[in-house]
Amino acid sequence: MLWQQLQQQTVVLGADFYVPIIVFVILVALAVPVWASIGSAAILMLMMSGALPLSLVGESLFHGIDHFALTAVPLFILTGDVLVRTGLSKKFLDVAEAITCWAKGGFGSATVLVCGMFAAISGSDAAGAAAVGRMTIDRLVESGYPRPYACALVAAGACTGILIPPSIAYIIIGLVLGVNVSILFLAAVIPGLLVLLAILITNTIVNRRHAYEGGGLMSVGEWASNLWRTIRSGWYAFLVPGIIFYGIFSGRLTPTEAGAVAVVTCIAIGFIIGTLKFSDFPAMLVSSAKVNGVILPIIAFSLPLAQALAILGVPQGFVAAATGVSDDPRILILMMILILIAAGCVMETTPNIVILAPILFPLAQNIGMNEIQFCVMMITALGVGFITPPLGLNLFVVSGITGESILKIAARAVPFVLFMLVVTLLIAYIPAISTALLPEIYQ
User: For the segment 243-253, what is each residue's pLDDT rounded down to a tens digit?
Assistant: First the structure.
């Protein structure tokens, strides 16, 4: 229906649109790297449409990533890697377990909490899924959880990697739409915590229904004493998120500066406690460079593609087509959410943001949604797509580190998808959730 409306609008899409899109889909289906698929489609669209002389493509690619804010991306990636190599991530797990050990299903809840803690430093969902999965999945199984459900729990918790600030996704969408990244981080705090709470509630309900894990039954005094001992033995690990949050939200540090300080702090702690050596640096830097080397080419090639789509009038055509289907803002918001969840299933956050944000944002403006709420809604919906069966990307990550069947994990992920979708709808329909912490000028 929407596609028929799009074809009927004054914006006429021809071969210069359809052929590159078909080429992109074929290349992705053939498992060609996403950056190469996007680059091929972008160059082909530019050639066929004449939207940008090919002699300027190189300059366009350079300017696409020549932004100070993007420096934060490799810094947060490196911080996450140092966090794992120094063993500080294990301290987060110890504290999370001490917080939840009083309740039934305590270690499952601790797993979700440590995903949130890791998210507050690394800003990446895939890194969180891999790091937390290696630490917790075997222990979850020993605690009584079926392995497919344990994998689904980690995959869901790791979605907070792009939802709880600091987040690489918010850095990129801020760059694409020209929105202040620090304001986006502040706006994302309540929505990110709501998603974390939704995952905790889901696990509690499922655990009570199936009695996967027992535990609990300790006095308040025992719990408090155990928590205090655990915090005392690993308090230094929380210096890192503390510096990041205080620096960014107090306005004393930009996200890039906070990332740099976080890296230095992690490294210093690693040397002080003896878990990091100079010999670890080459492998650590290479590992982080590989991840960064996947993200930045995608951004570089996605921006010319977004420019070509804008010149062809695709965003305007999409707005006209969508409003032709319905002029009810509630229906249009639901339409955007479904598109974003479907996109999140098949592609990483970065290309989805760079390509879809300029197309969907005019529609959001048309129905009165401000830029802050739109950004938060978009990132949250993409996060839901990461565990939406059967193609959610986090499902593939945990399947890769455990060898568990993706279909079995996907089946156990359904309750998490439903609860996260409820939070996404709340964010989309209640602007105050995204703007409650912001200065009045942004509300």
Answer: 888 888 888 88
